Amino acid sequence: MSELHQLTITQARAALDAGETTALELTEAFLARIAHTEPQVQAFLHLTAEQARAQAQAADAQRGSATSPLHGIPLAIKDVICTKDVPTTCASRILEGFVPPYNATVIERLERSGAVLLGKLNCDEFAMGSSTENSAYQITRNPWDLERVPGGSSGGSAAAVAAMQAPATLGTDTGGSVRQPAALCGISALKPTYGRVSRYGLIAFASSLDQIGPLAWSVADLALLLQVIAGHDPRDGTSAPEPVPDYTAALTGDVRGLKIGIPQEYFIEGTEPGVATAVQRAFAVLQAQGAELVEISLPHTKHAIPAYYVIAPAEASANLARYDGVRYGVRQPGESLWEQIERTRGELFGAEVRRRIMIGTYVLSAGYYDAYYRRAQKVRTLLKRDFTQAFAEVDLIATPTSPTIAFKVGQKADDPLAMYLSDVFTVTANMAGIPGLAVPCGFSEGLPVGLQLLGRPFAEAMLLRAGDAYQRATDWHTHRPTL
Ligand code: GLN
């Protein structure tokens, strides 16, 4: 058997069921790995070692009667998801010391399934960014090359898996934030359909785009996680009442006859040649497995980034209005109430968050609403229509996940526009509300490249089936960094 921290969820499950290890042993192995690698990787904002040991012991005590595949499996969570009695900061100074009195629905579901919580993971402040450099606390490093970023905003969630500090994690994806860091860290991740997973207890960035999604080595593991977190939640008004299929049963390995669309608009200038080559090879693998490749067009793609950077900041400006130093977290003192609010928001939000609030209030203001916000919403409708038309012809769409491999820490930190372009291939799925899967598909300059598969609304089972079939034919998801 491999060392415990190298196991996927599926492998750890088998080892637990065979009595080769215990939940406590597994948990101790990951805690030891965290202690060993954290000085370099810096993925965690908060460790819950004692709670993890207690949960693992409880899981071991219930062995035999457990039914969930996640029973006794250690996991870690992006720090934008509320965890009862465990600090939740959104990697922001403004929420320093905030301890939620309740669990997000996804956390409740994980706890009910017997999963073990190792801790909370670093990210860009309020999930705004593509490198995790916007965290107010620390810079997370890419385990494949410590001078590079892990991607973002769920950079801690991707780096923790790649560094084998946890077999899987949860992140959130508003414009690409589980898929892009997964691609840059050589792991798999899924952004579910909007409404598939409850957002109750997820601290809002852009409410019409945000979705919680799992990150892990294999697609088979993503299926196990989605099974537990998906499903209707009356506490989230946008949660869909769609039934949840058996995702693991959907992994038949068979993609024969599936029509996979290749959109020409996703092979643009600015995509690194090494990325394009790896992704083209992945298409050929799927074709060799019996899928049919079809060239398609998604004509409004080039308007996605500008429209996203109107809509996401507009929603963020409304969602972040609540952080005034009165109701939550930290308060900066001031002579007057106004000065107190101004200092709290001016000093405790980072530069990117303040930039988004300013853009958001601007595009929503009376004189500019029609020119910017309404127009961006029209673009959103056109993007959605592009996909509806494409999915009348094809079952899935395949693209690169990110135009580049992991870039150096600091390389794009002072250039917000260059940073925004990291998500050219991922924001469209959020704008249209459709699911997207990222899987590792090779290396360029020694660093991981990700393939992205997009599907129809609520067609996660088909996406996972194709991703899993690809992983049965390739071994990119089994490569581990030497750390
Ligand atoms: N990078 C994008 C942004 O900064 C997306 C972030 C996300 O998906 N949370 O908004």
Concise overview:
The protein has 483 residues and is α/β, with parallel strands linked by helices. 38% of the residues lie in helices and 13% in strands. It has a single domain, classed as Amidase signature (AS) domain (Amidase signature (AS) enzymes, Alpha-Beta Complex), CATH 3.90.1300.10.
Please write out the topology.
Elements: H1 9-17, H2 23-41, E1 44-47, H3 49-61, E2 74-78, H4 105-112, E3 116-121, H5 155-162, E4 168-173, H6 179-185, E5 188-191, E6 211-216, H7 219-229, E7 259-263, H8 273-288, E8 292-296, H9 304-319, H10 337-348, H11 351-364, H12 369-393, E9 396-400, H13 416-420, H14 427-432, E10 436-444, E11 447-455, H15 460-473
Parallel strand pairs: 2-3, 2-4, 7-8, 7-9
Antiparallel strand pairs: 1-3, 4-6, 5-6, 5-10, 9-11, 10-11
Structural class: alpha/beta
The largest pleated sheet is described as: 11 strands, mixed
Q: Give the CA-based shape.
A: globular
Per CATH, the class reads Alpha Beta
Mean of residue pLDDT? 97
Distance between the termini: 20 Å
Helix and strand succession?
HHEHEHEHEHEEHEHEHHHHEHHEEH
CATH 4th-level superfamily = Amidase signature (AS) domain
Spatial strand sequence of the major β-sheet: 1-3-2-4-6-5-10-11-9-7-8
Overall tally of domains: 1
Helix content: 25-40%
Level-2 CATH architecture: Alpha-Beta Complex
How many DSSP-defined strands?
A: 11
Q: Would you tell me which CATH topology applies?
A: Amidase signature (AS) enzymes
Number of helices: 15
Radius of gyration computed on alpha carbons: 21 Å
Parts with pLDDT < 50 across at least 5 consecutive residues: none
Strand residue content = 5-15%
